[in-house]
Amino acid sequence: MNWEVVIGLEIHAQLSTQSKLFSGAATSFGAEPNTNTTLVDLGMPGALPVFNKEALRMAVMFGQAVNAEIGMTSVFARKNYFYPDLPKGYQTSQMDHPIVGKGHLDITLDDGTVKRVGITRAHLEEDAGKSLHEDFQGMTGIDLNRSSTPLLEIVSEPDMRSAKEAVAYVKMIHSIVTYLGICDGNMAEGSMRCDINISLRPKGQEEFGTRTEIKNVNSFRFIERAIYTEIERQADILEDGGKITQETRLYDPDKDETRSMRSKEDANDYRYFPCPDLLPVELTQEYVDEIAANLPELPVQKAERFMSEYKLSEYDAGVLSATRAMADYFEEVAKVAGNAKLAANWVMGELSKYLNTEGKEITESAVTAEQLGGLLVRIEDNTINGKTAKNVLQSMWEGEGSADEIIEAKGLKQVTDTGAIESMIQGVLDANAAQVEQFRASDEDKQKKMIGFFMGQVMKASQGKANPGMVTPILNKLLKG
Amino acid sequence: MVDQSIASLAKKLRAKEISSVELTQDYLARIKQLDGQLNSFITVTDEVALAQAEAADKLIAAGSTSALAGIPVAHKDLFCTDGILTTCASKMLHNFVPPYESTVTGRMLASGAVTLGKTNMDEFAMGSSNENSHFGAVKNPWDLEKVPGGSSGGSAAAVAAGLCVAATGTDTGGSIRQPASFCGISGLKPTYGRVSRFGMIAYASSLDQAGPMARSAEDCAHILQSIAGFDANDSTCSEVATEDYTANLDAPLEGLTIGLPKEYFGDGLNNGVATVIQDAVKEFEKLGAKVKEISLPNLNLSIPSYYVIAPSEASSNLSRFDGVRYGYRCEEPKDLMDMYKRSRGEGFGKEVQKRIMVGTYALSEGYYDAYYLKAQRIRRLIKEDFVRAFNEVDVIMGPVAPTTAFGIGAKTDDPIAMYLEDIYTLSINLAGIPAMSIPAGFAEGMPVGLQIMGNYFAEAKLLNVAHKFQQATDWHTKNPSLAEGA
């Protein structure tokens, strides 16, 4: 059977507010257990939530960025269930009246086609704490630092038809929230987590198949692999004539398999109802308009500007605008170097090689944008040639300092003195008298082929420091005698 | 001493006729002498009280003008008090010592009031008789065989017996007004949002409101002055400006229009109570007020609406009592589920468990629309009834409860009869308007309270109306023999 996969995603993005969604406690990562807490986060009797207006602003920004309807009246609701790291016995979330309603965004697929993915809604909710099962000898430790951290849950329509589309969508969401500066996008620290809804149906069938939900996948690579694995699992069952059980599953990256967590039958009745401790959030059109007017440049707009302003190709503009960090890095290099095309080539070429080899993000680059820009300046002004520059970049990556420091320390400066170059070339010609004879006896076509040999010898003699632009005319003149 | 008002004590404290330390010692002695019979206190804070009294004496010597400075008061045991046991009269919180102070008690401390202790109540404020307490029933000082009302029964009994000058209470469906009526004292439930709920252990968040319980309307005004007003820690607390609640207490009542809802004088109202209320209304007519019959047609729907909304909110509010972080945890739990089930099963009393179950049911999938949403719609109708009424009248009057205090144990096996106790008070909480109970007479030897209801944020008007009545009558000065004898 030819199966079509249907994928919908729920992405939890942690908003980068200073304080929590309903308390003044800090949201910083990695603090001592239970230190980033107030009465509210601990679920103390009598403590009451106070809504963080910064989280509201961020949610509205996101809504604007995905062309969504903004909920002018949104309502917090309680999702009731018992869990030791859920201190109040309910999670404050939004149900019937989310802050962000229907919207959409466009993703570009590998073949260059653009696909529109629907956003069903995005709502604000508080995170729970963390249960720690190690180090407590048969007991469970609870850390409430994360309790009440603000999350934006972004729910997509079931519009994706492959693992690749799903990853492209998650990357676009990642790109948008980091561009907006409302989420640090750090998936390893759990700042962005993903629940994947997957079902299969025979190609051509209108009706959706039974879906499973894979919870809490936290890297682009795992999302792709989890989807492939789950597609395979579901296809095997269906092709054996079996039925898919609607359930929640977990992806285990070590074994590359998904495992059942709980079935629909064990699902909680969350008994949602409007939270009586919080008033409905009423927005004015003025507030929404002001946020819209001050929205930062988004990935698509940035790519367009890179094409028009820097004359980059569509492909280059796409790569360099994929993340805000990459775009900012590139623009800084271009500014310092004064040559955007050269900057684009080096960021996407040489620098990316180092990043990929060490598995680092652009934000972790050992060479700063300013340093790389400084290197390119020295190519532009003929202090070094491109080949030498690559060696300088390696030294820079190893922390040996700025381009100028390395060029100085290693004596890599190009020789640009005409007299010095001329005498050096003469020396090379003298040492290769037979080849010079041969050259002079050859026709023009042959000569063109032979010039490379002399060029190589000159560069070798100059230890790469001779400026090739200057060498060529002098070499030609002396060869012809 | 029992009769002394906040105003007269404040005068004496400033004239150095008595110090706050002496006053506090007197009250602590009375508690020791009488509370064995009443059981109105869960915790008496002798040392804290005397230290606070000493500080208050210094404050007064330094020229403090706060009416509450040096005045010994008691707090219902659901206000969190920093470092002082706060139980909500529940086994669940039998060992809970809050690390912070509620806004209400904090503001009273800032006004210089002295905390004598924490008063008994129905567990988690659920009850109309103060029989649902882990620490035992409270007795009515007018008749030790009878209930003091609930849920703020300890506060009411303590004030009536002269064990404190005044007390705080909370009112979710009548919990200040009904015990005030049963014990012959004055009690005010302010407009929802007038007083911060921060640090009040929640029963039903959209209905809970704290207020004063004292010997007179004037005393209530002094306490309200201290506790009312915006608090950034409570999102539902109103930013409407407070008034000077004592400034217009003496304003004449000529031209005041009193609405008498016919639904408050129908079947089920005890004859003795009805007579007292009618006589009180006549007294107001003598003071220049006019009377108009009005209708609050949805009154009978307030009981079903309340008993869906309040338990629904409670079922969620009380989820945090899970044995994990504080309070009661069962012995030797086998696993997580066992810990939850036994901690909550053993920690909560019967009435609390009943309301949690009712609320859980009402919010369940498939029942939510039929119960919770419908109850909310009724709540809007009830509110509209009052809004319409206040277009025609200045205040509304009626009884607080259908009867006077009933016998201990008389209604414990008849929950419907117990819930009917609240018929005249519930709708006020559902609408969110302010209302008072003031002593208006006696029926068969037990006090009867008159209920005065006002428009939103009309607390000053209510206090004025009540004060004028108390200037013209002496019901509020009557003391139970138990208090007189001491």
From TrEMBL, chain A:
Any Pfam family: GatB_Yqey
InterPro entries per the UniProt record, alphabetical: Asn/Gln-tRNA_amidoTrfase_suB/E (IPR017959), Asn/Gln-tRNA_Trfase_suB/E_cat (IPR006075), Asn/Gln_amidotransferase (IPR018027), Asn/Gln_tRNA_amidoTrase-B-like (IPR003789), GatB (IPR004413), GatB_C_1 (IPR042114), GatB_Yqey_C_2 (IPR023168), Gln-tRNA_amidoTrfase_suB_CS (IPR017958)
EC id: 6.3.5.-
Highest taxon listed in the record's lineage: Bacteria
Domain Asn/Gln amidotransferase: 328-479
Keywords from the named record: ATP-binding, Ligase, Nucleotide-binding, Protein biosynthesis
Residue ranges of coiled coil: none
Reaction equations catalysed: L-glutamyl-tRNA(Gln) + L-glutamine + ATP + H2O = L-glutaminyl-tRNA(Gln) + L-glutamate + ADP + phosphate + H(+); L-aspartyl-tRNA(Asn) + L-glutamine + ATP + H2O = L-asparaginyl-tRNA(Asn) + L-glutamate + ADP + phosphate + 2 H(+)
Subunit structure: Heterotrimer of A, B and C subunits.
Family: Belongs to the GatB/GatE family. GatB subfamily.
Function: Allows the formation of correctly charged Asn-tRNA(Asn) or Gln-tRNA(Gln) through the transamidation of misacylated Asp-tRNA(Asn) or Glu-tRNA(Gln) in organisms which lack either or both of asparaginyl-tRNA or glutaminyl-tRNA synthetases. The reaction takes place in the presence of glutamine and ATP through an activated phospho-Asp-tRNA(Asn) or phospho-Glu-tRNA(Gln).
Protein name per UniProt: Aspartyl/glutamyl-tRNA(Asn/Gln) amidotransferase subunit B
Gene: gatB
From TrEMBL, chain B:
Active site: 76 (charge relay system), 151 (charge relay system), 175 (acyl-ester intermediate)
Enzyme Commission identifier(s): 6.3.5.7
Gene: gatA
Keyword annotations from UniProtKB, A to Z: ATP-binding, Ligase, Nucleotide-binding, Protein biosynthesis
The organism of origin for this protein: Marinomonas ostreistagni
Stated family: Belongs to the amidase family. GatA subfamily.
Gene3D superfamilies: Amidase signature (AS) domain (3.90.1300.10)
Top-level taxonomy: Bacteria, Pseudomonadati, Pseudomonadota, Gammaproteobacteria, Oceanospirillales
Stretches assigned to the Amidase domain: 22-463
Catalytic activity: L-glutamyl-tRNA(Gln) + L-glutamine + ATP + H2O = L-glutaminyl-tRNA(Gln) + L-glutamate + ADP + phosphate + H(+)
Superkingdom as given in the UniProt entry: Bacteria
PANTHER family recorded: GLUTAMYL-TRNA(GLN) AMIDOTRANSFERASE SUBUNIT A, TRANSAMIDASE
Family annotation (Pfam families): Amidase (PF01425)
Protein name per its UniProtKB record: Glutamyl-tRNA(Gln) amidotransferase subunit A
Gene Ontology molecular function: glutaminyl-tRNA synthase (glutamine-hydrolyzing) activity
Entry's transmembrane regions: none
Function comment: Allows the formation of correctly charged Gln-tRNA(Gln) through the transamidation of misacylated Glu-tRNA(Gln) in organisms which lack glutaminyl-tRNA synthetase. The reaction takes place in the presence of glutamine and ATP through an activated gamma-phospho-Glu-tRNA(Gln).
Assembly, per entry: Heterotrimer of A, B and C subunits.
